[in-house]
Amino acid sequence: MAKKKICIIGGGISGTALGYNLSLYDDAEVTLFEKGRIGCGTTSKSAGTVCLFDDSLKNRYWDVRLYGFETYLKMEKEKPGSTGFDKTGTLVCATNEADEKRIKSGIALAQSAGYTGEYITDKDRIHQILPMIDPEPLLGAGYTQDDGYFDGTMISNNFASKMEKNGAKIVTGVKIEEITVENGTATGIKTSEGAHEDYDVIIDCTGPWSRFTGKMVDLDVPIWHTKAEAFFMAPPQKLDYVFPVLKYPAFYALRAGNNIFICKSHLSMDLDNPMHAGQWDPDKLPERGGTDDYFIEFLFDQMEKDVPGLVDGGLASSWLSYRAETRDFLPIVGDTPIKNYVLATGYGGNGVIEAPAVSRDLAKYIMRGESTLLLEEWAFMRLVK
Amino acid sequence: MKFAICVKYVPVSDQVEIDPETHSIKRGSAECDINPCDLNAMEMAVGLKKATGATLDVYTMGPDGATAALKKCLALGADEAFLLSDRRFAGGDTLGTAKVLADFLEKNGSYDVIFTGSESSDGATGQVGPMLASLLKMTDVSDAVDVSVDSEGALKVSRKVPAGRLSLRVKTPVVLSVPFGCNEPALPTLRAQMKANRREIHTFTSADATPSVLEDLKVKSVVTDVFPAPKAKKAEEITGTPEEIADQIAALIQERRKKDV
Fold first, then answer.
1. What ipTM score was computed for the predicted complex, to two decimals?
2. Greater confidence, A361 or B127?
3. CB-CB contact of A374 with A382 (8 Å)
4. Which residues of B touch A (CB under 8 A)?
């Protein structure tokens, strides 16, 4: 049986999850190229939260969220400690009626899948769960103890290990420098080591680098870079309680060792605001630091209002990463105008949540030609209409 | 009393490029932050400031990006910040750096205590602090690991020496060079950092410098070569349960810290 030769560019959560799903087909011959190390780019700066009912992904796609969450739970069960799962639970704060409605729907969906979830209006109880926040301005808060956050790099390496066991090939430290296109069809690649290889399908999983990768096939990939500016705060008092993932509409926080990680939520980014979004070079990002002063102002205002227990905490460190966002904050998955050049990019802040379900569907489409509703909704063509 | 601290904005990444001609670090290519032991000096300076009610000014010589180091010092407790930035200041050796710093420190008034880190993590010469003391005719105390002030206004300084600690009583004015790891530097709070980011940084260029100092910036020492440090040959695997491994690492850190102090 002739195997389909597939090249995946990018070894983050998108590329490795897809590589693993493709490697489950015995007629797929998969090679993944990563210019650095597995899970070392944007994925390494992901908070890895997979919460049962926050606003990161609309309830319309709740099954995508659930599939991701349960994929990682199974991975964790297979090899304890391998996903970095910290079951802290999540507290999602409702600041208006629309939030409240969405959270309540999310709780119903979580309960339907067998998980716990409750909507709390008792301010004392909210304060008890998370003493740092001021519950007074809140209408209420959704709370579950069942979820938490994972480690994107560990998950990516787990997927990479599984795909290798299935016979797929992973090449790290090698950059794709050229993609050959003949008569509107992508046919092969040239690597930084000078190798020319032919492929039946080439898949761009390069996230914030997709603009540059797309240029190799003369394709304008419609993503913007938004700034994921994260701060690590040393709380004024030692945390002697379980700090749940904390979700407000504009930011989220979670425990990171003895510190608190705080980041602006991806849906609050304004693609028309040059302080939030633009076209930048992800290769020029520093390993840490690089945040803008404006973000400290933003964070301070939010913290002083919502989490007053943290504004006088120490600013331990910070980092900046670029998310790859589309106009509708949903990924771009599937075919492009260049035949056999496929995208699995633009996950924004949701790569860890969305990659398992997307990869499952996309692998089936690539190998069997069978599409799904998800692929149809997240297709490239929706953005060029 | 009036204190000053001189800090340096240094590359913190190991991804630095070296200029093949000058053998110096291409600073534009590197991610930078405040020099680690300058934070120890800052901690000591802020402690003495609190104890004495003194003012504390912070100085750095470097590009515009070095204002980040100054803002961090303002957030940690410095009162005023001074950036000395000009192409004519760049590319000098340690003596040139010390001369420029000394010129502006002198212009801004007489300081009772000037703090510096013992050495920078990039050049690691450890020369600028003692040079400042010499140029400003102040007493030089290197490797100062603790300081307090006595009832007569003299400083009681504990100094790291190979055999242990040496206690000194020093009359001001004095330059104290502070080694890495001698104290636990505080972190700026979000509130303090936000306020510091809004503060004015006083910037001076060669036009503000004393002409005779500028004329005397000719480089007297040249870096002729740089090479990577030899890799450590001794490596030991730490094994055990996660808790046992953590305990062993903590013990190693403590042991190393004692050696450093």
1. 0.77
2. A361
3. no
4. 12-13, 15, 31, 33, 75, 186-191, 193-194, 197
Of B33, B187, B190, the CB nearest to A296: B190
Among candidates B220, B13, B257, B201, which has minimal Cα distance to B98? B220
CB contact under 8 A, B190 and A289: no
Average pLDDT, integer, range B93-120: 91
The token pair that represents A167 in the structure block: 């016979």
Residue type at B146? D
Q: B68 CB contacts (<8 Å, ≥6 apart)?
A: B9, B32, B33, B34
State pTM to two decimals.
0.85
Is the pLDDT at A67 greater than 90? The verdict is yes
CB within 8 Å: B190 and A231? yes
Residue A195 and residue A201: Cα distance in Å, rounded? 17
Average pLDDT of the residues in A114-124: 97
- What does pLDDT average to over chain B? 88
Q: Do B190 and A286 touch (CB under 8 A)?
A: no
- Decide if A315 and B188 are in contact by the 8 Å CB cutoff: yes
Retrieve residue A62's tokens.
Answer: 């709740």
The Cα A312–Cα B189 span in angstroms is 5
Buried b or exposed e, range A61-83, using 16+ CB within 10 angstroms: bbebbbbbbebbbebbeeeeebb
pLDDT at B218: 74
Residue B174 CA to residue A66 CA, distance in Å, equals 65
DSSP helix/strand/coil, A77:
helix
